[in-house]
Amino acid sequence: TSAMFASKFRGSMLGALAGDCCGAPYEGHDVCVGGERIILKKYFDKLEGPYFKAPKKAYTDDTAMSMCLAKVLIRHGRIDDKELAVEFVKEYFTDPRRGYGGAVIQVFNKLRKSKFADPLQPAREQFNGSGSFGNGGAMRVAPVALFGHKKTSDEIIEMAKQSALITHYHKQGIDGTVLQALAVHAALLMDPEQQLNTKDFISNLIEKMKAIEVDEEGLGLDDAQPFTKQLEAVARFLSMNTEPSDDDVLNVLGNDVSALYSVPTSIYCFLKAQKTIKGIDSDNPFRRAVEYAISLGGDADTIASMAGAISGAFYGENVISTNLVKHLEFHEEVTLLANELHEASLKT
Ligand code: 8NA
Ligand code: MG
Ligand code: MG
Ligand code: MG
């Protein structure tokens, strides 16, 4: 129903905001062990308590760029390269201190200087022409998947790619964006009243990524299908009788700023949180996903934000504690944009 989708839109966008805001102080940290897990639990307990007891948490680039995408989709009903480039540049130069990736700022400078003559050119020039493989395309893509709720996977894939290309030209930067969009889209279309079949969820993503990761360069299948391989590792971890150790998760799935070693990790966080997690003491599956993602450290805000976007798209906004939402900078604006994005999606 329309009301259910509206709630899922808000759930996904507030879920992404929550992961970003709560994870930002942990960005660059090591994995939380022992007492640090207890400190993290207390941090969340406080944020889920009365809103005057803890200060508001600031959002970062993940949210700033997601909202640019939402605005362009609301205004134009599609991804328009130039409009998106203008929106990113306007946002960055208005509010630059939001923890943007080390290299993406060069893209904004070149876009502005060239007056957006070719909105895709600066991204192609990144890293000596190889393009960025960072997770910046993936971290902001949820609004694309939400907006496309009536569209086919192929249409989602196209829109996700287009949204990535303004800053991320490397195949892994693009494919990570596509994977995150497909995960949010799949979660959005599911009934949260039904027990989620994590095995089916991951197999569906594996099939889709296999079709995308064709061996164009004849590199040999292992190298040519990196996301497929990572998703197979996610499936393996989920099927184990005992939870894999944090070291196993970090060594195999990763927690860094690259798309390849963060997007499958966020999907793992979402799926793993369907059940209880050792050291994470909460009966709320959304909180488990976000808290577990943050406990892994590294690019904590981004991995938690991506996990939160998927989880919120599955459960809808009611899964997120209302006190927690009140502790998030920008939550009113994000809620408004989620509603507008939902309305705009009904007109397509
Ligand atoms: P980006 O395009 O600047 O990529 C991020 C980083 O990835 C770059 O600075 C490089 O170090 C590395 N990188 C990407 N492509 C290549 C390549 N082809 N060759 C060598 N190195 C490469 O920005 P982005 O938008 O993808 O970045 C997103 C992440 O950066 C988000 O997590 C965001 O929150 C931010 N961020 C992360 C950290 C952190 O985890 N320590 C700190 C500040 C900002
Ligand atoms: Mg960030
Ligand atoms: Mg940051
Ligand atoms: Mg980050």
Overview in brief:
The protein is an all-alpha fold. It has helices spanning 2-23, 35-47, 61-76, 81-94, 104-113, 121-129, 136-139, 142-147, 153-165, 171-188, 198-212, 221-224, 226-239, 246-252, 263-272, 285-295, 300-315, 322-326, 331-346.
General description of the model:
The chain has helices spanning 2-23, 35-47, 61-76, 81-94, 104-113, 121-129, 136-139, 142-147, 153-165, 171-188, 198-212, 221-224, 226-239, 246-252, 263-272, 285-295, 300-315, 322-326, 331-346. By secondary structure, it is an all-alpha fold. The protein starts with a helix and ends with a helix. Bound molecules: alpha-Diphosphopyridine nucleotide and magnesium ion (MG) (3 copies).
Layout of strands and helices, then pairs:
Elements: H1 2-23, H2 35-47, H3 61-76, H4 81-94, H5 104-113, H6 121-129, H7 136-139, H8 142-147, H9 153-165, H10 171-188, H11 198-212, H12 221-224, H13 226-239, H14 246-252, H15 263-272, H16 285-295, H17 300-315, H18 322-326, H19 331-346
Helix pairs in contact: 1-16, 1-17, 1-19, 3-4, 3-19, 4-5, 5-6, 9-10, 10-11, 10-17, 11-13, 13-15, 15-16, 15-17, 16-17
Bound molecules: alpha-Diphosphopyridine nucleotide and magnesium ion (MG) (3 copies).
